[in-house]
């Protein structure tokens, strides 16, 4: 089954290729992407990995807390953003406000 994982606490030195290489030992990686700040281009310290696995729980147990480039990474199943622009934040009166 295909799963999307959130990977946090990444070292600044981790790029897409290093992230993919680490997870390749645990399944067939479809994509691996480190998220960068759009203004500075610097890594934001997290990323996403999409991969085909038989048991997502086993992959999370094997990778969560593993040390990659000197830092223990945090891995869990990514949550759906709820649409193309993220979750809605509605007030009780039904009007949506932006934060």
UniProtKB/TrEMBL annotation:
PROSITE patterns: RRM
Region ranges (Disordered): 70-99
Keywords from the named record: RNA-binding
SMART domains hit by this protein: RRM
Superkingdom to which the source organism belongs: Bacteria
Domain RRM: 3-80
GO molecular function, one term: RNA binding
Record's keyword annotation contains RNA-binding: yes
PANTHER family: HETEROGENEOUS NUCLEAR RIBONUCLEOPROTEIN 87F-RELATED
Protein's name according to its UniProt entry: RNP-1 like RNA-binding protein
